[in-house]
Amino acid sequence: MSDASLPEGLHMRPATLADVEQAVCVMNSSEIEYCGEPETTENLLRRTWSQAARKPEENARVIVTPEDEIVASVDTRNKRHIKIDVELDVLPAYRGQVELPLMRWVEERAQAHIALAPEDAQVLLGSWAYQHDTQRQQLWKDLGFELVRYFWTMKRELTQAPEQPQLAPGIRLRTFKELQKEAPQGEERLARALFAAHEEAFSDHWGYIPNIYEEWRQYHLGKEADLSLFFLAMDGEEIVAYARCADEGQQGGWVYTLGVRRAWRRQGQALALLHHAFGEFYQRGTRTIRLGVDAQSLTGATRLYECAGMQVERRSAKFEKVLRPGRNMRTLSLNQA
Hints:
Number of strands: 12
Largest sheet: 12 strands, mixed
Structural class: alpha+beta
Domain N-acetyltransferase: 171-330
CATH class of the largest domain: Alpha Beta
Keywords: Acyltransferase, Transferase
CATH topology of the largest domain: Aminopeptidase
Number of domains: 2
Helix content: 25-40%
GO molecular function: acyltransferase activity, transferring groups other than amino-acyl groups
Pfam families: Acetyltransf_1
Strand content: 25-35%
Order of helices and strands: EHHHEEEHEHEEHHHEEEHEHE
Strand order of the largest sheet: 1-2-3-4-5-12-6-11-10-9-8-7
Protein name: GCN5-related N-acetyltransferase
Radius of gyration: 21 Å
CATH architecture of the largest domain: 3-Layer(aba) Sandwich
Shape: globular
Distance between the termini: 41 Å
């Protein structure tokens, strides 16, 4: 793409792993403005861009000054070529000047995904904005996106040791790391069982699109993942629920994924996992715990998190744009699951 539409002196180029530090600074600028503190870490972005399916040279662009200082970035992630999620970040001094060229690149990049999507499938772009970021929300509307959903970030501050987990009869809590050490020859079987549990648990979440096992494993169970914070609720040898957590240092502890298989719901599995995770973070000296949730969760997750003592810290709006009409292949209601 030509740089003619960019302010004088700025240039667009592919992102690389060497850009992680600068790219995170750009992302943090909006997080500090709207959240009061940075949220994205270098470790998180490096782990993301290290995935084979997320190569920044192919899926991300940065806008730089003549000194190669990054002032804006856009990153894309596709789910089976039918949904392309967009993360757009711009330093405050450059807002309103560089977004349109970046989004033109995104739509050009999306054409490759449209060609690979099932012939009858609807293909979408998706992105988001903080609730109070009216400038970004207006940008999405001007580009033809529609507001489709709200999401919350919820938080709990641990001022004292949290509640002890109350496990259902016959359920034991283990970590992936423990099971991995006990039976290293069975690690692949364990990983596939966990993947199957995840796909079942999330198949009735709004917007669900089936994952690809190899991509899922590389990100969730790769060498940089702390598998001692990947908690599994076991009924004998069967995984019935799990919580994937991470200690993000100054950003606190995160419960990135919490899932319960259908047959084991309404038995306190999720609450027990949350309390167990809180306890582990507390023992490690981490006092702030966060997670993200669909504000209109089909499975009632918001009520669970409120019962666990979590409160809404901030709200964001989800936007989507249809690039190609067709059959919507995502979960939109429990009747589809």
